Amino acid sequence: MSITIKEVEHIANLSRLAISEEEKGKMADTLGKILHFAQELQELDVENVAPTTHPQPLKNVLREDVSREWLSQEEALSHAPDQENGQFRVPAVMEG
């Protein structure tokens, strides 16, 4: 299936892309190849292929959730360059 320069211009306009005349020709060729490949996929017989969500079997790779000792609030704040009321103080990112 081929795609015309006019169709490429329309797609570029919808995408808000500015493309040169040379790029339009390359894009028409590339999009035509993509559409041709999609058409080939449509012709495949997948009647006896079981639907899958992933081609490889998946397993849970998370580690066991185990509680452990962590820094106390005082220890964590001892490394803070600035703190206030038991919290890290950082510069404001939005004006109120």
From TrEMBL:
Heterotrimer of A, B and C subunits. It is an enzyme of class 6 (ligase). The keyword Hydrolase does not apply. InterPro entries: Asp/Glu-ADT_sf_sub_c, GatC. Keywords: ATP-binding, Ligase, Nucleotide-binding, Protein biosynthesis. Gene3D superfamilies: Glu-tRNAGln amidotransferase C subunit, N-terminal domain. It catalyses: L-aspartyl-tRNA(Asn) + L-glutamine + ATP + H2O = L-asparaginyl-tRNA(Asn) + L-glutamate + ADP + phosphate + 2 H(+); L-glutamyl-tRNA(Gln) + L-glutamine + ATP + H2O = L-glutaminyl-tRNA(Gln) + L-glutamate + ADP + phosphate + H(+). Its EC number is 6.3.5.-. Pfam families: GatC. Allows the formation of correctly charged Asn-tRNA(Asn) or Gln-tRNA(Gln) through the transamidation of misacylated Asp-tRNA(Asn) or Glu-tRNA(Gln) in organisms which lack either or both of asparaginyl-tRNA or glutaminyl-tRNA synthetases. The reaction takes place in the presence of glutamine and ATP through an activated phospho-Asp-tRNA(Asn) or phospho-Glu-tRNA(Gln). This is Aspartyl/glutamyl-tRNA(Asn/Gln) amidotransferase subunit C. It comes from the Bacteria. PANTHER family: GLUTAMYL-TRNA(GLN) AMIDOTRANSFERASE SUBUNIT C, MITOCHONDRIAL. Belongs to the GatC family. SUPFAM superfamilies: Glu-tRNAGln amidotransferase C subunit (SSF141000). Residues 72-96 are annotated as: Disordered.
